[in-house]
Design goal:
Distance between the termini: 50 Å
Number of strands: 24
Radius of gyration: 29 Å
Strand content: 15-25%
Structural class: alpha/beta
Helix content: 25-40%
Number of helices: 15
Oligomer: single chain
Length: 535
């Protein structure tokens, strides 16, 4: 059935691609697909749309070109494997469109092993029903070809359930290794995975968005190494434990907004990376996990047992029921102190804006964070005055620091700043922040930072948001760099990577001005170099 013929009609690439190269929605759906005598779906052609075939020929047919042009068509002379690899780099609709180039190309797209379907990857947004029809017809036309990766992004509706079931049946029947299923819905019940997917020996990577799994299912994914689950309303502590027991080689697990999962306890020797995003996780015990990321929003504190942890990311916000209360600051402060104590042995620590601003509150209350032994510290910060005390708190207690990375984010209010602006008894604290001068602040911290800068070798600043509304941005940044250059005795280099130099507010800077300013600062390390990259 390489030509797409079957009992329900005959299909070719012209049924998929319009004359302008975009998806052609010229057929009505009638689910029936033949596989071993069992009927799943079929499609019937209609003539409800008219198309300009001449424009298609002009675009893809080389017959009107000079003979010399045809003689120089070296791409078509390449082996099939190379051409298929080239087609796999294109959006699927573009790969299908190459079937019109010549007979040499007609069937090549059917051998592309990676299938990615999305309404947003071509010239215009595709209606959900049109996308469903498109997936059906593609699978029908290439039913004999293998599938390594199957990816679908769809605005899911209940009437699409049987179609999605068929897609997964076809993909798993071809020993698919990677499945990405993003079935976002505005209303109605979510899609529930079919039974045949819970037992699969070929899956290596599985990503599920807005899909539910049967919490009572028995899972067997012996080859699965990467699992990501988001917005699963049915996932709970029992089912996540069942999943982990059925994944003996799982290396990476991500849970996002799985609200009923509160505990994660595993003795898995293979699980090395764990990402928790917007989950109210209360307890995590994973002795072999080496990388942990806590992201998004949470309403609860967490207890950690991660003795092998080497890399940690804290880029989350604690939802506060009573905003601006002193109890909320104390709760946030206790959580950050506990997390930093728990992660004392990590080699790399990444901290986000909200967490930095919580440390700012602690700093202004004369409460320091625990000693941090990481060699690499990465700070996601907008470098506002609300961040500076927290950054100083971290730097002063980073006793083994060798690499400092400042990832400059958009200058918007962080959670801590919003809370601090409440009129709830923090008037002195607010007054301090309002009067804080970035350059003078870093000068005042120089003596306290000297010891922590003695082992610093590399400073890297990544800034893609130099159109910044913060007037003190450049002064804060240059003030810190001045202190670093003056006191870091074995500093090797300062690397500044920017996207585009802006001229918004006080940021009337160009690369030459920044370089001249930095070169004018005294340097404790004679071998230190300043590298400036502008993309």
């Amino acid at each position: 059935m390489e030509d797409g013929s079957h009992s329900g009609g005959s299909y070719s690439e012209s049924d998929l691609i319009d004359s302008d190269g975009s998806y052609s929605d010229r057929t009505h759906r009638d689910r029936s697909y033949r596989d071993g005598g069992r009927s799943f779906f079929s499609c019937s052609s209609t003539d409800d749309d008219s198309f300009d075939r001449r424009s298609a020929r002009r675009r893809y047919d080389y017959s009107h070109r000079p003979n010399s042009y045809l003689e120089d068509d070296r791409i078509s002379d390449l082996p099939d494997l190379i051409l298929i690899q080239i087609l796999s780099l294109l959006p699927l609709t573009d790969a299908i469109a190459t079937a019109r180039l010549s007979k040499r190309w007609r069937f090549l797209w059917k051998m592309v092993p990676n299938l990615a379907f999305s309404p947003y990857d071509h010239y215009s947004n595709m209606r959900p029903s049109a996308l469903v029809s498109f997936v059906d017809k593609v699978l029908l036309l290439r039913e004999r070809s293998s599938i390594n990766k199957f990816s679908v992004q769809l605005d899911y509706r209940r009437e699409f359930r049987s179609a999605v079931d068929v897609w997964l049946h076809v993909a798993t029947g071809k020993n698919v290794e990677e499945i990405y299923l993003d079935l976002e819905r505005d209303r109605g019940a979510p899609y529930t995975l079919p039974k045949n997917l819970y037992t699969n020996s070929s899956l290596v990577k599985l990503t599920l968005r807005d899909c539910n799994m049967n919490p009572n299912a028995v899972f067997s994914w012996p080859s699965l190494r990467i699992l990501s689950i988001s917005y699963d309303d049915e996932l709970n502590d029992y089912s996540i434990a069942s999943i982990l027991s059925g994944c003996p080689v799982l290396e990476s697990l991500e849970l996002r907004k799985c609200v009923d999962v509160s505990r994660l306890n595993t003795m898995s020797a293979s699980l090395k990376k764990l990402t928790i995003r917007s989950c109210d996780m209360m307890q995590i015990s994973a002795p072999k996990v080496e990388s942990l990321s806590i992201l998004g929003f949470t309403e609860t504190t967490v207890s950690l047992d991660l003795p092998s942890l080497l890399h940690a990311t804290l880029n989350f916000e604690l939802r506060i029921v009573k905003k601006g209360s002193k109890d909320s600051y104390q709760k946030s402060g206790r959580l950050m102190t506990y997390l930093l104590e728990t992660m004392n042995g990590v080699e790399e620590l990444k901290i986000g804006t909200w967490c930095i601003q919580v440390l700012s509150v602690l700093e202004m209350q004369n409460l320091t964070c625990p000693a941090i032994t990481c060699k690499c510290l990465i700070l996601n910060t907008s470098f506002t005055r609300w961040d500076l005390p927290g950054m100083a708190n971290l730097l002063r207690n980073s006793v083994s620091l060798e690499t400092l990375v400042l990832n400059m984010t958009r200058a918007s209010r962080g959670r801590g700043e919003i809370l601090l602006r409440k009129k709830d008894g923090f008037k002195k604290l607010n007054q301090f922040y309002n009067q804080l001068d970035g350059k003078k602040y870093w000068n005042s911290q120089e003596g306290a930072l000297v010891n922590s800068l003695q082992g610093l070798k590399i400073v890297k600043i990544i800034d893609d948001n130099l159109y910044n509304t913060n007037d003190s941005y450049s002064e804060c940044l240059l003030g810190l760099l001045q202190v670093i250059l003056k006191n870091a005795r074995i500093l090797e280099k300062v690397v500044i990577c920017t996207n585009k130099i802006g001229n918004h507010g006080s940021l009337r800077l160009n690369s030459m001005e920044v370089a001249q300013t930095l070169l004018s600062f005294p340097k404790a390390s004679p071998s230190a170099v300043i590298l400036y990259y502008k993309s």
